[in-house]
Amino acid sequence: xxxxxxxxxxxxxxxxxxxxxxxxxxxxxxxxxxxxxxxxxxxxxxxxxxxxxxxxxxxxxxxxxxxxxxxxxxxxxxxxxxxxxxxxxxxxxxxxxxxxxxxxxxxxxxxxxxxxxxxxxxxxxxxxxxxxxxxxxxxxxxxxxxxxxxxxxxxxxxxxxxxxxxxxxxxxxxxxxxxxxxxxxxxxxxxxxxxxxxxxxxxxxxxxxxxxxxxxxxxxxxxxxxxxxxxxxxxxxxxxxxxxxxxxxxxxxxxxxxxxxxxxxxxxxxxxxxxxxxxxxxxxxxxxxxxxxxxxxxxxxxxxxxxxxxxxxxxxxxxxxxxxxxxxxxxxxxxxxxxxxxxxxxxxxxxxxxxxxxxxxxxxxxxxxxxxxxxxxxxxxxxxxxxxxxxxxxxxxxxxxxxxxxxxxxxxxxxxxxxxxxxxxxxxxxxxxxxxxxxxxxxxxxxxxxxxxxxxxxxxxxxxxxxxxxxxxxxxxxxxxxxxxxxxxxxxxx
Length: 494
Description:
This protein is an alpha/beta fold. It contains 18 helices and 16 strands. The chain has a seven-stranded parallel sheet. The chain has a six-stranded parallel sheet with strand order 13-12-11-14-15-16, with helices on both faces. Helix 1 (4-26) packs antiparallel against helix 2 (33-52). The protein is globular, with a radius of gyration of 27 Å.
């Protein structure tokens, strides 16, 4: 891509020449009026383009972070904006505003959130017409937003979803002399194929679209080395691997904060309420997991507490939660058959299209020793819950086999051991029998739960060993990882 200064100079020269030519044409009666109009229009367009590229002292310190999705449910993009602001960049964060982002994002003066509305196509006629009109409206919406904002040095775009945002962002970068960075979380067409099938015309179109527009970006980021290799081999795209790393907010939760969270959740979810038969003294405040002594404000965990199992999901096709529900039903059977195992409270967090479907399945189980709830947590409470849990479960199966579940990254940041379902590149994150266990079906998961929780709440068993390994091998945090891999791309053209 030509440098911004060179592009602006060329447009200025073109506008000057076009203007002089228009004056010359007007003074010559034998020149066609349509030709004069064409030249005038060309001159006006060139002046408009010059205005789009007009740079000021702050242009190189402005970046647009764009996600055609819910900002509050896009943690990686939130981390990008915080890292950019930490280095003095003014960030315009564009996306849907369905959920509240983390308070650090809201408090940061250098981050300005520009909400966009989720649009729908026409609701009559075939589904293809609905989809096409939705894409057209989204194109117009994104063009309007991106062209009206101050000139940005870069547009940092999350993909997926990339249709139509990749094409729109690329064209805006061409018009304005900005640089496009695509952060590949997965392939959009493989996600669409889960519900439509690989041979569906829309899936084939989406695949062509990503193949065509992806290589036009100035820089590319991706989430695994497997995706990096695939982008290079099959797409001709050279990408930088930026592994998801836990932000500093993900850590083991002190007992007092655990208790405060349990009591807040108990107000809404009975699974967290104290139901024991022991005497409830007025000097104590109790949840099902913890006790706070009101005389000295000390907090302890109840000896007979259940184990807290946590999972998170977007409730989409790439996560089959029936696997977990079947495993929990088998775990219930172990207890009824006399196994010495703790009761379970299973908290499954998140929002998504299949949530109601699974809630009905959960309600139909009628388990006695396993209690399941599906809370939606504020951004500040989610890391506190992970840091309070005993075991995490991940059911993410990558549609492409090339991305990794960020939820596991967050769990590891809280030193929370994980049971994760097997897929191609999972080994880049989960080390089987070292920081967690990998399973293939519900029966294997049930056996793993039985094995890991057989000595609960003692910290001497396998579960405690995994947690100690995670404490020892914390690795990089997001901030250092970002500074090492992304900052050089942002500053390379300054």
